[in-house]
Design a protein that fits this description.
two-stranded parallel ribbon, two-stranded antiparallel ribbon, 4 strands, 274 residues, disordered C terminus, 71% helix, mainly alpha
């Protein structure tokens, strides 16, 4: 098989995997923007179980319900959300629908990506990916939840203290609110993957732990740049709130990588018998 045929074969496999992903994600997205979840309770003796059933609703759908939950949890008291553009509400529902679709469809996305990559990996690389799969997922979920439930509300409260100090009205556009909340929370999810990234590169023999320790100053600058890029506001406060945990996670990853190098078995030397 020539190089052109090999490239076409790879592109064909990529297309097949993308189609398989789309066939799963499209119904999820359609459900989120066309149905609402109506709550009801199921009594089981002394226990009451809260449940919900789907009901067709084009406007007050799951994405609208998620938006109202974000508004209640994230927004400081006294802040007013404004629909500044005619289509802002539609855009917000589509953005939330796309994000929720990716979250709910992530197991299938990971499955398809793994099915595409695994045949090209060596045996030790496959073992490593299986070993770090669950920790990587747990760290991403933990970082996103920490950002969504604690750090994003704290950041918004802090920023609106400056608004109050300036004597201006505490208002915020709904599109800006959703983008800030989602990007800021997802940034923490990505930041929490840093120890896994460092550990994996050391395990694969790409970067030794000593190199991570030697270049810690560049890593600190990189954390600051990442915090600047992923935060949608222009203040340095949010940048530092992202960069500071990343620095701690960087040194944690370096420690785990160094510990693995220390505890791994040394190479076996073959001794020829006489």
């Amino acid at each position: 098989m020539g190089d052109i045929d090999r490239i076409l074969s790879i592109l064909g496999e990529v297309r097949r995997r993308l189609v398989r992903i789309a066939l799963v994600l499209a119904p999820i997205f359609g459900f989120l923007i066309t149905f609402e979840l109506r709550p009801f309770s199921l009594s089981l003796g002394a226990w009451t179980v809260p449940l919900a059933y789907p009901y067709p609703s084009l406007f007050y759908n799951v994405t609208a319900q998620v938006f109202l939950a974000l508004k209640a949890w994230e927004l400081p008291a006294g802040v007013t959300l404004l629909n500044l553009g005619v289509g802002d509400s539609v855009i917000v529902q589509l953005e939330l629908g796309a994000l929720l679709t990716v979250i709910f469809g992530m197991p299938w996305i990971v499955h398809e990506v793994a099915a595409f990559l695994v045949p090209a990996l060596r045996k030790n690389e496959r073992g490593l990916f299986r070993q770090i799969g669950i920790p990587a997922t747990a760290l991403f979920a933990s970082g996103t939840l920490a950002g969504l439930l604690f750090l994003t509300p704290l950041t918004l409260q802090l920023l609106f203290l400056y608004v109050s100090a300036m004597g201006t009205a505490p208002v915020l556009g709904i599109d800006s609110f959703v983008q800030f909340t989602l990007l800021y929370s997802l940034a923490f999810g990505v930041a929490f993957e840093l120890p896994i990234f460092i550990y994996a590169l050391t395990r694969l023999g790409v970067v030794p732990s000593a190199s991570w320790r030697r270049h810690w100053r560049g890593a600190v600058i990189g954390c600051l740049v990442f915090g600047m890029l992923v935060t949608p506001d222009n203040s340095g406060i949010t940048m530092l709130l992202v960069a500071a945990p990343m620095m701690a996670l960087y040194f944690a990853g370096v420690w785990f990588a160094g510990r693995w190098e220390t505890e791994r078995p040394g190479p076996t030397l073959a001794v020829a018998g006489g």
